[in-house]
Amino acid sequence: MPVQDQDRGVTLPYPVKSREVYKGDNPAVASGTGSKIEFVEEIYRGNVQLRVDEFTDFAPNTVLSTTTGWQAQATTGTPGSNGIKANTANGIFEGVLAVTNEAETVGVDWAGQLIIPATKRFYFETLIRIPTAITTAQNLIVGLQTAYNATLDSTTKFVRFRTNASMAVKAEFQDGTTTDLAQSLNRGGFTITANTWTLFAIDATKAGVIRFFINEALYYTHSIGAFAVTDLLQPAIYLNKASGTGVQSLQIDWARVGWNRF
């Protein structure tokens, strides 16, 4: 049965979508200065769905909190830098590992605030760059997960990309029941090119399936697994080293995450 478009007074078939976008400088409304929250209402066969879309461009006026919202993540070590990079076109986040031989992590997450329901058709995408190829004992993590754990494999639950010294990208999944680490990608795999922007996306908007994209090409799929309705996640983008004196860095241009409210 068709429905009526209230704006134009015409009859349209299902589905009908409406959209409200906010972009501004009020942290009480958006997740930090310079952010955008987009609410998409979708009506399909009488069932209303509300999606939340949160976008952050890491411009110079982006607020990095220590308690809520986007946080610069660091361990007990002392990275060279870990925050918004000054005087850079369009604005970026940059985390730089220090020459000190110690465990360190640079990057961002939501300060351990887990609010993304793992069963609500989430998606996550971000544009990042590794200026100099990472080396032994270093890892890049890009995806969604539970609270930060300096021992990466001890993170409780996650859906993520992972890269080590080879710069070859792998897919990883942990739902509390199934653990799949260092899964090879399709299409012959993908190797990050140093000092080149790369677009990563994880898309669970299709029922029952999680899809892993790089530069808009599909490289891997995984079932939604045994995530419970009570499981909550946060976005996480980290460059980690267990030891060593390398001073590699992680740069993030922007990040976007969304999910169904109900």
Task: Please provide a written account of the structure.
With 262 residues, the chain is mainly beta. The protein has 2 domains: 1-56; 69-257, Jelly Rolls, CATH 2.60.120. It is 0% helix and 48% strand. The chain is built from no helices and 20 strands. It has strands at residues 3-5, 10-12, 16-23, 35-44, 47-56, 71-72, 81-85, 92-96, 104-109, 116-117, 123-129, 138-145, 158-163, 169-174, 179-183, 198-203, 209-214, 217-223, 232-241, 249-260. Strands 3, 4, 5, 7, 8, 11, 16, 17, 18 and 20 form a 10-stranded antiparallel beta sheet that branches. Strands 6, 9, 10, 12, 13, 14, 15 and 19 form an 8-stranded antiparallel beta sheet that branches. Residues 1-37 have low confidence and may be disordered.
Keywords:
about 260 residues, mainly beta, Jelly Rolls, 2 domains, 10-stranded antiparallel beta sheet, 8-stranded antiparallel beta sheet, 20 strands, disordered N terminus
Secondary structure topology:
Elements: E1 3-5, E2 10-12, E3 16-23, E4 35-44, E5 47-56, E6 71-72, E7 81-85, E8 92-96, E9 104-109, E10 116-117, E11 123-129, E12 138-145, E13 158-163, E14 169-174, E15 179-183, E16 198-203, E17 209-214, E18 217-223, E19 232-241, E20 249-260
Antiparallel strand pairs: 1-2, 3-4, 4-5, 5-20, 6-9, 7-8, 8-20, 9-19, 10-19, 11-16, 11-20, 12-13, 12-19, 13-14, 14-15, 16-17, 17-18
